[in-house]
Amino acid sequence: MIADGVENEEKWLAAGIAGLQQNAFYMHRALDSNNLRDALKYSAQMLSELRTSKLSPHKYYELYMRAFDELRKLEMFFKEEARRGCSIIDLYELVQHAGNILPRLYLLCTVGSVYIKSKEAPAKDVLKDLVEMCRGIQHPVRGLFLRSYLSQVSRDKLPDIGSEYEGDADTVVDAVEFVLQNFTEMNKLWVRMQHQGPAREKEKREKERSELRDLVGKNLHVLSQIEGVDLDMYKDTVLPRVLEQVVNCKDEIAQFYLMDCIIQVFPDEYHLQTLEILLGACPQLQPSVDIKTVLSRLMERLSNYAASSAEVLPEFLQVEAFSKLNNAIGKVIEAQVDMPIFGAVTLYSSLLTFTLHVHPDRLDYADQVLGACVKKLSSKGKLDDSKATKQIVALLSAPLEKYNDIVTALKLSNYPRVMEYLDLETNKIMATVIIQSIMKNNTHISTADKVEALFELMTGLIKDLDGAEEEVDEDDFKDEQNSVARLIQMLYNDDQEEMFQIICTVKKHIMTGGPRRLPFTVPPLVFSSLKLVRRLQGSQDQEENPFADESSTSPKKIFQLLNQTIEALLIVPAPELALRLYLQCAEAANDCDLEPVAYEFFTQAYILYEEEVSDSKAQVTALHLIIGTLQRMHVFGVENRDTLTHKATGYSAKLLKKPDQCRAVYSCAHLFWVDDQDNMKDGERVLICLKRALRIANAAQQMSNAARGNTGSVSLFVEILNKYLYFYEKGNPQITVAAIQSLIELITTEMQSDNSASDPAADAFLASTLRYLQFQKQKGRCNCVDILWSELHIWHSWRGLRSLMHPAPVHFDTMCAYKVLVNDTVVIFTEL
């Protein structure tokens, strides 16, 4: 059925265009021969095609535009006739003899345009006659296009200020009256369309009306272009008349569109000075009118006007714009009882944006808007409307965007109250917006009170809410918690007492985060606390009595807090992370010379290692961390250090895999030889560790031979060789040339063995070691090189790597790189 209707409409349009073109052809022939009567005859027949009622507004517009083009040519003919002496008055009378009223009025408007231009009669009389005569067409579509034509041909002939048509008898008042009268009649025709036809075609009619609305709105545009319409005339005549028509038409579509037109076409300063009149019409509109959009656009225009220049801001204060807008919004919300919460929040969001632009220094105004929004939301509970929550986010984001400072937003007492009405998901979105604002503007939150208020706003990100089931993408969750971690790092105060209060406040909040969040939020809190410890260490005399005043912030207090904080990770569980943090705290306690505290942290780390860390890879990593941290500790006495060292070496021998055992044991050798501490240089125990590592490496080869039929790689022996060389260079008297020579013989024997597996990595490692030894010989830094050289020569001969004996000259930097490679385990260890 629809397809048939469209097809028929196309046929009717084609037939109309064909008839119009045919009569236009004869009209042109008459015009060329200066035959006025035939020209009028065929032009009237041509315009009769516009009498159809079968076309939709869209198709009718196509037909109208073709007729319009022809009428412009006819108008030019009438002008030529006037120049040749033809009486315009007679012509004006002649066209009124057309048989049908619609062609007659089109011709009358065309001649009327020439009549006004000839100035043979006052423009206001001709305009008044034309606008009155057009009342003869009451069909909505035909009448709207006829009056649109009248507006089009007369807009440049209105008696405006500075216009050639202005005179004693013609004033701008007449021009305004003509446009207003034409607007009124067109609006009546437009509204009438809604009430014609069956109810089932309501949507179709509304669509057709939407296609025609610009014809009506053009009148308001013409009014705004009249130079003589100053503020007084707009305030006293234009705006009241237009609003009267808007309110009285009682049509939802017309009221919304025309109010929007008023806001868009007239100047901002006019709106500001007539704000009370314009806002007074809003409560009188139909309840179904989308008044939130109208007022939002009005406030948007005023906000942009205020932002355009600081010179206009006094005008806003003079007219009390905020007070008027605030009252108007209240009345609209009160009058429209059924207004959805989305609409009310949108209004308050626009009002807040306006307030921040016009009165950025009046936080009380902004807080007042938020308070009104809270009052509206109080009867609704948690919002479940996605549109409303989106507007709430826009509302709460406005102060952040304006001030670029969350601290200022926190001064608004109603700001957190608005956030209470957000659901969990939207609360998290808003919290993320707040954090992003802090990061973008590098905002420092420097007091515990502000931190408390900030974390209350971010409840959705840092706390497991009661009864709330979170189903969130794992990557999104990690991004959220990482943002919280970055925020914690932004919290800082130079005052140490206040900084400690900030840390306590953060701890109170993140401890409610649940097992999923703690691994993200505890580490930044721990490191922030350790920063404070080191600041305290630098500002206090730790040697005399660091805990003399128990009421003040001290490292001891902070370490107690840290111990409680890290313990929370055990419920996650996250033993590896907790162990790392305990070791970090132990190192900080070492810097503060707090032996009991450092020992306690090591004890906790050992307990975690024994009871919680079960994965073999995790054990290896944790053990190397323990060894590396313990090696740097200088605060321990002999007894405590021996206890901890004994435990570490015991753990090393109990690792699952032999290679891991070997590496852990030779790493323990560093626990007995610390360069910068003479009292921690036990060469004998270093040698014991290295020999034990050799035995484990040998056992590993035997196990490999039994299981795989070959002894496997000699890489462990090469690594141990490097340790021997390291401690030899450090001056350990227990590491002798003979021991090194024996080890090289062992490596050579193993590599020559038929059971030895080829390992390019081990070969490369050994080659780098030999290059390093040769470099040391050239520099005269290694006494053992000559003694070892014969053994190395055997290895080179067997491997066919004689080129290594006479390598190309190596640059010093390159040889240093070999040294780094040779001592890679040492470098890694000392960097732990």
What does this structure look like?
The chain is mainly alpha-helical and 832 residues long. The protein is elongated. 41% of the residues are buried. Belongs to the VPS35 family.
Core attributes:
73% helix, disordered C terminus, membrane, transport, Vps35_C, Vacuolar protein sorting-associated protein 35, Vps35
End-to-end C-alpha gap = 82 Å
Largest sheet: none
What's the tally of helices? 40
- Tell me the Rg in angstroms: 46 Å
Q: How many E strands?
A: 0
Helical fraction equals over 70%
Question: What's the rounded overall pLDDT mean?
Answer: 84
Gross morphology: elongated
Derived from helix and strand composition plus strand pairing, the structural class reads: mainly alpha
- Given as residue ranges, the uncertain stretches (5+ residues, pLDDT < 50) are 541-548, 789-832
Protein topology:
Layout: H1 2-32, H2 36-47, H3 57-83, H4 88-94, H5 101-118, H6 123-133, H7 140-154, H8 172-192, H9 202-225, H10 231-249, H11 252-265, H12 268-273, H13 275-281, H14 291-308, H15 313-319, H16 321-335, H17 341-358, H18 363-377, H19 386-403, H20 406-410, H21 415-419, H22 424-441, H23 448-457, H24 459-462, H25 474-490, H26 496-510, H27 514-539, H28 555-567, H29 575-591, H30 595-611, H31 616-632, H32 638-653, H33 658-668, H34 683-708, H35 715-729, H36 737-752, H37 760-779, H38 784-799, H39 812-822, H40 824-831
Produce a short descriptive summary.
It comes from Salix suchowensis. The chain has 40 helices and no strands.
